[in-house]
User: Fold these one by one.
Assistant:
Number 1:
Amino acid sequence: MKKRNIILTIISMLILIVVLFFIDKNLDSYNTRILNLCAIYVILALSMNLVNGFTGLFSLGHAGFMAVGAYTTALLTMSPDMKAQNFFLAPIIKPLANLTLPFFPALIIAGLVSAFVGYLIATPVLRLKGDYLAIATLGFSEIIRVVFTNTQTLTNGALGLKGIPDTTNIWWTFGMAAVTVIIITSLINSSYGRALKAIREDEIAAESMGINLFKHKVLAFTIGAFFAGIGGGLLGNLLGTIDPLMFRFILTFNILLIIVLGGMGSITGSIIAAFIVTIAGEALRFLDETMNLGFITIQGIPGLRMVVFSALLMLVVIFFRHGLMGTKEFSFDKIINKFSRKPSEKGGDQ
Amino acid sequence: MSEVNTLLKIEDVKMQFGGVTAVKDFNLTLNKGEIVALIGPNGAGKTTVFNMVTGVYKPTEGKINFNNRDITGMRPDLITKTGIARTFQNIRLFKDLSVLDNVLIANHLNIKSNFMEAILRLPRYKREENEMMEKSLDLLKKVGLLDLKDDKAHSLPYGKQRRLEIARAMATNPEVLLLDEPAAGMNPRETEDLTDFIKQIREEFDLTIFMIEHHMQVVMGISHRIYVLDYGVTIAEGNPYDIQNNERVIQAYLGVNEDDA
C-alpha cells in the first residue's frame, strides 16, 4: 500500500514538472506571473495555516515577516551598482553595499532572518491568547513596516527598492512550494505536529499531558515566520520592486482569506484556495474598471474586487465554517478506494 | 508511616482566590499502591486540590512533595513528566483528533528527537515514533478501545470517552493517577464497569490512584482511605467504614437541623 502511494506521488511530481515545463515554454508572461503568484500564495497560506489552523494561534503578523523576507532577499541579491542607484538619499550601510549572493542562499538567509524576527516577537506575544494575540501580532507587523519606512540606510525607507533581479521563475516558485508542502506535511504528521494540534484542541489538556505549551507555540510561530520570509523573498524578486506600503494588513488579509476558504487545518485546502483566490483576484479585475452593462455604464470603483472577497469570506464564515476541506486532506488511498469500490463489487480485484 | 513508600505528600496547603479561601490547611499523604478518594459536597474545594497538585494553580501557602521532590507551583507539563497524570471533571479530550492520536499525543513528553529530526524522519525519530505507536496500540488494546482507534474522540459514547481519557493519562507513564469524578454522569452499569476498570489498570500498571468522586458506590467500593472536604476544610479522614459513620460527614452531606443540634 505504502509503496503504491510513493510511486503515485513520484508520478504526479513528474506530471507537474512536465506541465511546468510546458507552461514555462508556452505561456505568456502575464499568465506565468499569475501562476507564480499562486505558488507563492501556497507557501504563504501553508505557513499561516501552520500557526492559525494547526496550532490554533490567531496570528495576523504575516505581512511583517514577508517584508523581512522580501527585503533580505532583495538586498542580498541586488548588484552593488543597483544598490548605489537606489540609495541616493543616504548610502546603504557598509557590509551590505558590496554583498551579492546567489538567489538560493539569499532566500534561505531571508527565511532564517524572518524566523529570527518571528522568534523575538513570539517570546512576548505568545503569552497572549485569542483576540489579544491577533491584535499584538498585527501591531508587530505594522511596527516592522514602520521601521522599514524609517531605516533609510538599510531599506531605503519609503522609496523602496527598485531593480531587484527578477530571479523568481516558475521553477523557483513551484519548487519552493513543493518543498514547503513536503516539510509542513511532514511536520504536521510527526509527533510535534500532533502536539500542535493538541494545543489547538485543548490547551489545558495538552499541558497536563506534558506538552510544553510555550515551547511548541514558539516553534510553530517561528517555522511559520520562516516560510513567510521565503514567500516574501520570492515575491520581491518576482515583482522587481518592493516598498513598505506593499506589506500592509491587506496582504495578511489575503492569506487569511485563503486559509479560511480552504479550511483551517487542511494543507490540501490551502493549496486549492491559494490558486482559487489568486486566479479569481485577476479574473475579477474587470470589477475595478469601467463596466458597460448595455443600459448603464458603471464607473470603475477601485477595490470592488475586495468587496467580493470580503463578501465571500463572510459567506464562508456564516455558512461553511470549515471551508472547502475542513481538516481533511487529499490522499491517494481515498481516491483509489472511491474508484475501486464499484469494480470490486463485480468481483474484480484490481 | 515509612518515608519509603510515601509518594505524594501535601502539607498545610492553602489556596486563596482574592478574598475567598478555597482550601485551607489541607494535608494528605498518598502511599504507593493505594486508592485514596477525596469527597465532599459541591464547592468544597476538591478540584482545587487537584489543580494545585497538577500545577494549574500555585498554592498560596504550603508544600507539595512528590517522590521526595518539591513540586509546589511547578509548571503542569513538568509535573506530568515527574509522574502525575490526571483526567478532568468535564472530559477534555482532543475532540477532533482520532482515538489513537489522543493516546499518541500523551507519549510526546518523552520524545528526545528535536523537530528537525522529526521533519526529516531521521532514524532516531523513526525509532521513537515506532515505539510510541506500539505502546499506544498496546495500551488501547488493554483498555478495550483498539477497534475504535481511527474514530474521532468526540464520536465515542460517553463511557468510552471517560475510558479514553484515563487511557490517555496512562500513556504519560504516571506513578500517580488523579481521577476527577470518573463516574460523573454514568448509569449504574457503566459505573460498575468503571470500578472494575480502575481496579484492573491499578493492578496492571502498578498505579497509585487519587480520585474525586460523588458516587458513594464507587468510593466505598474501591478506596482504601477517604478524605472529606467541606468549605475547604478537611472534616474527616479514614477508611470507608469510619467515614460512613462519621457524624460530621453526615452533617456536611445532609445538613444539620438547627433545632435538633
Note: Strands of chain A lie at 291-292, 297-298.
Number 2:
Amino acid sequence: MKRFWILSIAAVVALSVVVAADLTKLEAQMTGSRVTIDGTSTVHDWTVQGGIIGGVLELDSKFIADPTKAQPGKVDAKVQATIPVRTIKEVHGRKSMDDIMHEAMKQKVQPKIEYRLTELTLKETPKSAEGPFNFDSKGELAVAGVTNKVAFPVTMTRVDKTKMKTSGTTSVKMTSFGIQPPSPKIALGFISTGDDVKITFEWMTAAPETK
Amino acid sequence: MNNLPESQPNAFASDMTRRGFVKTSSFAAAMSMLGGIPLVAQQEKNETPAASGSTVKCAVIGCNIWGREILNMLARLPKAEVIAVCDRYEASLRRAKEAAPKAEGYADYTKVLENKDVQAVLIATPSHQHKEIVLAALKAGKHVYCEAPLANTIEDARAIARAARDSAKSYFQAGLLLRSDPQRKFLLPFVRSGATGHNVKTRGQWHRKMSWRRSSPLPEREKELNWRLRKEDSTGLIGEIGIQQIDAMHWFLNKRPVSVTGFGGILSWQDGRNVEDTAQVVFQYEDGTSFNYEASLATSFDSEYEILYGTDAAIMLRGNKAWLFKEADSPLLGWEVYARKDQFFKETGIALVADASKADAAKSAKDGKDDDGGDPPLRHALDSFLANTELISNAIEDFVSTFNATDMKALTEYLAGIQKSKLPAATYMDGFESTVTCIKANEAVAKKQTIKFEKEWFEI
C-alpha cells in the first residue's frame, strides 16, 4: 500500500516536473515588434511608439507541436518582457514631448518597463496550426518603479516556421503607476494630459530552430 | 548692424490696395500656420527643459579662432561636456584649454580618437584637413560634427559623405548652421506654401571689409594660417563663407543649379594672395530663374542678407530676422494687419517673427522695439548636434542592452526608424551637395567662366 502511494506520488511529481520543464523558448526578435500608446490631452490626442520589445516567451511544447489538439484552459507558459523607456517616442518626431514623457515615466528610476506573465488561459481550441491562438493573460506590469497586476486578452499567430507574433491591447491609468499626467507649459498656457492611455503591442519572438 | 526705424502701421494700411481676402489653399495654410497654432520655435523655450542631466562627452579638434568659438558656445550648453581639445599649435591649444578648463589637451588627433570616453568630435580644422580626421573619427566609432565646406575637393568631400553613409552607428552633422535655426525652419513652409507667389529670382550677399589675412611672428605658422588665401587649399569666399547662405537658399528653393557663372578678382587686397577678394556667382536653374550671390572683403556696405523675389511678395532674410514685402496687387493675408512693419526707404517690410501672436505684435508695434533676434545660429546647430548624438547613442545602447547582441542590419533598420525624432540639422548629403556646388562655383569665379553641373559630381 505504502509503495503504491510512494510510486504514485513519485509519478505525479515526475509527470509534473516533465510537464513543467517542457517549455519551448522563443526569444524576442530584433525587428517586427511594436508598442503603441494612445492618449489624450486638452489640445490634441497623441500617440507614442517604440520598436523594441525584448525578453523571452516560453510556451508549452505540446501546445506548439499541435495547437489544434489543445483544450481550453490553463497553458504552461512564461513571459519576461522588457521595453526601454527611451525607445518610446512620439510618432511625428516631437522630441520635446519625448523628453517630457520620459521624465514623467521616471526613466532614471526605472529605465526599462518590465512585464511578467503569471497565468495564460486558452479560450478556445485553435482551428488552425498557424493560429490565431486566443488567450486570456494575467501578469504584472512594472513602470516608473510601481508594479501592478494587469489582465488582458492576447492573440498569438505563427509567422513562418520559427516565429510567433503575440499581440494584445489594454487600457491603464497613468496615475495607477504613480505617473503624474504631464502638464507642459506652452506659449498660450498649459496642456493637460489625460490619465487614461491605451497600450497596444505586437511582439515578435522566434524559436532558435525549426520545430 | 540693422538700425530699423519705428514701425508705422497706419502708413502701411493706406498704401495697400486691398482686393479682399482671397482664400487659396496656400494662403489659408500660411495664415493658419502664422495666426492660430502655437509655434514650435518659441514654444520649446517655454517648456520645462528635460532634466535629464546627461551629457555628451565631446572633443574639439582644430582650436584656432572658429574652434574656440565652438568651445565658447559649448561651454554655455549644459548637455555638452568637453573632455578633450586638440591642436597641433601650442598657443591655440593653450587658449583652447582656457576656454575648456576641464578638458585634456592633445597635439595629436589620433590620441583623441583613442580616448574611449570621447563620444563625439567636432572638427574645425582648415577645410582641406577635414577628410583625414573625419574618416578616422568615424572609423573609431565617434559621432562627428564636420565644419562646412566638408573639403576643398569633390573627391575628398565624396570620401567624407561615403564614410558618413556607411557608419550607421555614428551621427554625422555638417556645419551648415542655418539648417538648425528655428526662425529659418519656421519660414520654410511659409516660403514653400507659395505665400510669395512663384520665385523669379534670388539674391544674396556677404560684405565685410577685412583682409582675411592672419599674422604670426613665425613665418611657417603664418603660411599655415593663411590657407584661405591660397588657391591650392582654399575654396575662396564662395566656399568658405558663401556656402552657408547658398545652402540656405537652395534649401528654401528646394532646387539645385544646372550651371554657375563666376566673376571676381583681387580688387583691393593685393598682398601676394591668389584668391579673389571680391566674387560674384550667378547660379542658373532649370526653370529659368537665377540666384545671384556676391561676397567681398573690400566693402562692408549693407553686410549680409538674402532675398527671395516672388510674384506676390519678396522675403528678405538677415541672419535670423526676416521681412515680407508684398506686391501692391497681392491678396491680403489676415494676420498682416496686426504684424509689426518696418520701413526700408520706400519699401514697407512686414516683420516675420516665429511666435508672433497678435498680442506680441501689437505690443512690439507700440514700443517700436527691435526684438532680440534670438540665439546665434551656431548655438542651434550645436544644440541639434548634442541632442541628436545623444538620441542615436541612447538608441544603440538600448538596442544592444535589450538583445545582448548586435545584428547590424536590424540595428540600422531600427535607427532609420527613429530619424524623425532628430532635431533639425544639416545631414552629410546636405553638406556634400552644397560643398560640391560651392567648389564648382569658386572654380567658375577663378576661371571667369560658366560651368555646367554634371549629375555624377553629386553622386556618392
Note: Chain A touches chain B at residues 28, 30-31, 51-52, 54, 82, 84, 86-87, 89-90, 92-96, 98-100, 102-103, 108, 112, 184-188 (CB under 8 Å).
